[in-house]
Design goal:
It is globular and about 60 Å long. α9 packs antiparallel against α10 (303-328). It is an alpha+beta fold. The strands form 5 sheets. Strands 2, 3, 10, 11, 12, 13, 14 and 15 form an 8-stranded mixed beta sheet that branches. It has 3 domains: 2-51 and 78-159 and 250-328, 3-Layer(bba) Sandwich (FAD/NAD(P)-binding domain), CATH 3.50.50.60; 163-248, D-Amino Acid Oxidase, Chain A, domain 2 (2-Layer Sandwich), CATH 3.30.9.100; 336-368, no CATH class. It has 13 helices and 19 strands. The chain has helices spanning 2-5, 31-39, 43-47, 83-96, 146-151, 206-211, 216-227, 229-232, 278-297, 303-328, 336-345, 349-359, 365-368, and strands at residues 11-14, 56-60, 63-67, 100-103, 106-113, 116-123, 129-133, 137-139, 155-159, 163-171, 178-183, 186-192, 197-205, 239-240, 245-248, 251-254, 257-258, 261-263, 269-270. It binds flavin-adenine dinucleotide. Flavin-adenine dinucleotide binds at residues 13-16, 22, 24-29, 106-107, 140-142, 146, 165, 247-249, 265-267, 273, 276-280, 282.
């Protein structure tokens, strides 16, 4: 969408048939991501079906912090749209901007010219292969990225799966904010989603999650009743609208660009979902990569130099959030210094907002949190 709007010829490929959903992710979008949706002119379509909300109530090991994460460019709302809504709106906007979108087309490899990426190879179920040539290939193909693998993007800072989520959706819960409960080795959260539903989720450490694989429903209820009894008490009066979902991930950082290729979103960096940063991060990276690509393809700067600058800027921006997220995902008992800090900021709305900003990608965690 962004490159098509800048006048470039864009071919957009996705292996799924649209509209498609992504059942393995919750989908809270922080004000940073929502500000991108607004800039791109698609927010009203999302907001029509996924209500806005601003406030958070975060219970950190018994210290309750209330407030809202900082606004971004004057924009302060979050939304929790289902992915079939979000992805559909973005794909339509890309087509309206002039991109050619082919769904149901799987990329299986990269085409190379003298070691330089020069397009993609797509593959049909019948074993057929087709080459699509391009001066630049952007891999936005998720954590199992074929583009990353074929380009040889190096992986670093790998973290194993630490915690896992079990969640579903309910109608009839009066909740207009984010609720987050963090305890030692356990947690729960909830926020409004699409079409009048509220998402309620349990956090289990991964070993527990594996043991609970035969009865996720029981594990969900036991965990939410334990750490969030006030939230759990709302469920019997409400109607669960679908089966339970479950998801988790290992975390990694991949090189974000090389000769003729770039990675955005989870293809380039995958964080634990505990900070719900993935979608907002993907939007910001798409914006940064599109600016670099436009500069390189338009002749303002050598393409590879522009892409290398994108990769460096991405790392500089995101690595502090990556390290913070990895730490939070352990659901560890806070150090005395951290527990004191949480208590100290409880009645300080500005400091609370800064801490929430470390989650919502507006304040670098290294500037906000005390050293452990
Ligand atoms: C349990 C869980 C909860 C989460 N909760 C949140 C949350 O609340 N908020 C948040 O912001 N993030 C959350 N995340 C993270 C979020 O889901 C990801 O960061 C986000 O989906 C990344 O988007 P993406 O477009 O980079 O990748 P994806 O969403 O994985 O999309 C990749 C796309 O590429 C396509 N594709 C893949 N391979 C190919 C191929 N070979 N050829 C063609 N097409 C291909 C796929 O069909 C898909 O459409 C969560 C993750 C998990 C695991």
């Amino acid at each position: 969408m962004l490159l098509a709007r800048k006048g470039h010829r864009v071919l957009l490929l996705d292996r799924d048939r649209f509209p498609s959903d992504m059942g393995q992710s919750t989908h809270l979008i922080h004000p940073l991501g929502v500000a991108h949706l607004r800039t791109w002119g698609v927010l009203s379509q999302i907001a029509a079906r996924a209500v806005p909300f601003t406030d958070w109530r975060v219970d950190l090991h018994g210290t309750v912090l209330e407030g809202a994460p900082p606004a971004v460019d004057g924009h302060d709302t979050s939304h929790g749209p289902r992915r079939r809504l979000l992805d559909g709106v973005l794909a339509e906007a890309a087509v309206a901007a002039g991109a050619e979108f082919r769904d149901g087309v799987r990329v299986v490899d990269l085409a190379l010219d003298d070691g330089r990426v020069a397009g993609v190879v797509t593959g049909g179920a019948d074993g057929s292969r087709q080459v699509e040539r391009a001066r630049l290939v952007i891999g936005a193909d998720g954590p199992g990225s074929v583009v990353a693998r074929a380009a040889g993007a190096r992986e670093s800072l790998v973290e194993p799966v630490v915690q896992s989520n079990i969640w579903s959706y309910w109608e009839g819960i009066a909740l207009d904010h984010v609720r987050l409960y963090i305890r030692e080795r356990k947690g729960a959260f909830a926020f409004p989603s699409s079409d009048g539903t509220v998402l309620v989720a349990a956090n289990l450490m991964h070993d527990e999650f594996v043991r609970a694989r035969h009865d996720r429903e029981a594990a969900f209820h036991a965990r939410v009743a334990d750490v969030a009894p006030d939230l759990h008490a709302m469920l019997p009066e409400a109607r669960q609208t679908e089966e339970f979902h479950a998801g988790c991930t290992r975390a990694f950082v991949r090189e974000a660009a090389g000769p003729g290729w770039a990675l955005v979103g989870d293809a380039g960096m995958k964080k634990d979902p505990v900070t719900a940063q993935g979608i907002s991060t993907a939007f910001r990276c798409a914006e940064m990569a599109a600016e670099a690509a436009d500069e390189g393809l338009g002749g303002g700067r050598p393409l590879d130099e522009a892409l290398a600058a994108y990769a460096a800027a991405r790392d500089e921006w995101l690595l502090p959030y990556y390290r913070f997220t990895a730490q939070l995902a352990r659901f560890a008992r806070p150090t005395e210094r951290l527990a004191t800090y949480y208590r100290a900021i409880r009645d300080d709305p500005a400091e609370t907002a800064r801490l929430f900003g470390a989650v919502a990608l507006t304040h670098s965690p290294e500037d906000v949190l005390p050293a452990a």
